[in-house]
Design brief:
heterodimer, A: mainly alpha, Sodium/glucose cotransporter, globular, B: about 80 residues, 3 helices, about 55% helix, about 0% strand, elongated, disordered N terminus, Na/solute_symporter (chain A), Sodium:solute symporter family protein (chain A), membrane (chain A)
């Protein structure tokens, strides 16, 4: 009976999700090309950008991993809050900068930006492949996250393997057709459910189990003080140094993370991004809920170990609520897998359609089609890996992040500093990425109490500077304004600069599509 | 139309001192960590570290807002 109720609610919402995702592009035909699909035609306003970017950053990790880390370690889980907040703050500068650069030159992602900045196609291709390796684990993480949630909230009626497949099918079902715009529409449903259910749980759980917040917090302070400060409980080196270095490197990485950049580029104008740098941090307050409920679970379901601790929050939900409520909360958590998964698949598709397959002259005229095919292929590959190589993935996602961090000098430093040469940026990237792999796979992360990604990033920058100063000078005679992201077009009062800035720059790297012009007219 | 400070030189020469506000979250979350890494005193029942992290989270939109306000003033000038 319980299983039937919860499963029906879940099934109904999954259908609604696909319908909503598809409705997003109703009446838009199949026109618009890659820009329309990958970055929503650069047409999303402040509200949609908020919903989308909140939606894609609040992943299944927030429900599972955050509660699990809170349960296992306590305070170290606060790093999520810290790096996302700091990342939103520097996104105030980086977001409009990348947006304006992409808009001026008709670019749709970071691989595209790299190719344009260095005036060659192959660095974009290389970055696309590297980023795909880093992002695939995230898709798998969302699939497994959705699997355990769905199987738990259906009281076991839906098996893990079916739940994995459902996650893949629902996501692919809309993102292939409707791209970023569809993800934004589904995010509306997701954010409403997430805010509603977490708000409810934040009040209900302490009241139900402890008789209110006061007694709940008093009991944690009295009995579990070890969880409440760094380095937390049995965290194996996640002390203050780790927290500070992780927050630093992650906050730099999150602003160039391909999914974040997809959100930036979807904006209608730069001011939508500046406003959101201000409004998005409020969403982070919600992260306290799974963290605190993870701590609450210590008293209610003690003794969870390993991957089971990720279910700390859901054990409370299933234990204390009627089936319909379990179903609704399960939908919120499932959508927290689906929306980020959709954007991850979308950016992998975009990177390949544009910078890998699209870089082959014979294939360049069908970039959107290749992107859509790669979406399906990437999702299917991640699903296959989930069946054949399941594992606890929080660690793997940390490796991905530290690897992506190594792109920061090539992209951000490159866009503001003309002298950085291609050979220097590539050298730094290769050394940094290798160092991350060595440190992580030899079990040396944290290294000397610091995040290995930050250590590797420091070495990366030193190598890049050294090669720039000592190595060959670049032979690139394009003007600075063409190569760098110098101007982020701050709108003047009364003269909003929404419209197309000078399209002077399209001549740089040959593009097969002429989309820069198309997108400019689409938003006029 | 183009900012007079950006004339082809390094972008660091653009004068936007208000962007220093964006470092405030780093101060609140990271620089003062050794001082706030404690359970007591509890505030509103929250252990001090968690209370402080809530304060820092709410400071973030404020610091971005201050940077934006200065930028908007500059835009009008």
């Amino acid at each position: 009976m319980n299983a039937a109720v919860a499963t029906s609610i879940f099934g109904a919402f999954m259908v609604l999700t696909v319908v909503l995702g598809l409705l997003a592009v109703r009446g838009r035909g199949s026109g618009g090309g890659l820009t329309e699909w990958s970055v929503g035609g650069r047409s999303l306003g402040t509200v949609f950008i908020w919903v989308l970017m909140a939606g894609e950053s609040y992943t299944s990790f927030s429900y599972l991993g955050a509660a699990g880390w809170g349960y296992n370690f306590g305070a170290p889980v606060l790093y999520v809050l810290a790096y996302m907040s700091c990342g939103y703050a520097i996104g105030y500068v980086v977001g409009p900068m990348l947006w304006a650069y992409a808009r001026r030159h008709g670019l749709v992602g970071i691989t595209d930006m790299v190719a344009h900045r260095y005036g060659r196609a192959w660095p974009g291709t290389a970055v696309a492949i590297l980023a795909t390796v880093c992002l695939l684990p995230y898709i798998q993480l969302q699939i497994t996250g959705m699997g355990v949630v769905v199987s738990t909230i259906s009281y076991g009626a839906i098996s893990l393997n079916w739940a994995y497949f459902l996650g893949f099918a629902v996501t692919t079902g809309f993102v292939v057709v409707s791209g970023l715009r569809g993800s934004a529409w589904v995010s509306v449903l997701k954010d409403i459910l997430v805010i509603g259910t977490l708000g409810f749980l934040a009040v209900y759980v302490p009241l139900h189990y402890f008789g209110g917040y006061g007694p709940f917090l008093d009991r944690i302070v009295a009995e579990k003080p070890q969880w409440l400060t760094f380095p937390g409980h049995a965290s194996g080196g996640l002390g203050q140094g780790w927290f500070i270095t992780t927050t630093l490197v992650n906050s730099l990485t999150v602003v160039i993370f391909p999914t974040t950049v997809a959100g930036y580029l979807g904006a209608r104008n730069a001011d939508a991004l500046r406003r959101n740098a201000m409004y998005l941090p409020f969403y982070n307050v919600l992260l306290f809920v799974p963290m605190l409920l993870g701590l609450a679970a210590l008293f209610i379901v003690p003794g969870l170990v390993g991957a089971d601790s990720n279910l700390a929050l859901f054990k409370l939900v299933v234990d204390s609520l009627p089936a319909w409520a379990v179903g609704v909360i399960g939908v919120a958590a499932a959508l927290s897998s689906i929306v980020p998964m959709a954007v991850f698949m979308l950016v992998i598709g975009t990177m390949w359609g544009r910078s890998v397959l699209g870089a082959i002259p014979r294939l360049a005229h069908r970039q959107k089609l290749w992107s859509q095919l790669v979406v399906v292929a990437a999702g299917a590959l991640a699903l296959l890996l989930t069946y054949t190589a399941p594992n606890t993935l929080v660690r793997l996602s940390l490796i991905s992040y530290e690897g992506m961090a190594q792109l920061v000098p090539m992209l951000l430093l490159g866009l503001v500093w003309r002298r950085l040469t291609l050979s220097a940026a590539v050298s730094g990237l290769v050394v940094g990425f290798t160092l991350v792999c060595v440190l992580v796979f030899t079990g040396n992360d944290p290294v000397w109490g610091m995040n290995a990604g930050l250590v590797a990033l420091a070495v990366n920058v030193v190598v890049a500077l050294a090669v720039t100063w000592l190595g060959p000078r670049a032979a690139d005679d394009r003007p600075d304004a063409e190569v760098l992201a110098l101007e982020d077009e701050f709108p003047r009062e009364g003269a909003p600069r929404d419209g197309a800035p000078g399209e002077a720059g399209v001549a740089g790297v040959a593009r097969g599509t002429g989309e820069a012009g198309a997108s400019a007219s689409a938003s006029a | 139309m183009r900012n007079q400070f950006s004339g082809g030189r390094s972008p660091g020469s653009r004068k936007r001192p208000a962007l220093l506000w964006l470092l405030l979250p780093y101060v609140a979350f990271l620089a003062v960590l050794p001082l706030v890494n404690r359970v007591t005193p509890t505030v509103l029942g929250l252990p001090f570290l968690f209370f402080w992290m809530l304060v820092a989270t709410l400071l973030t939109p404020l610091s971005v807002g201050l940077a934006r306000r200065a930028d908007r003033k500059r835009g009008r000038a």
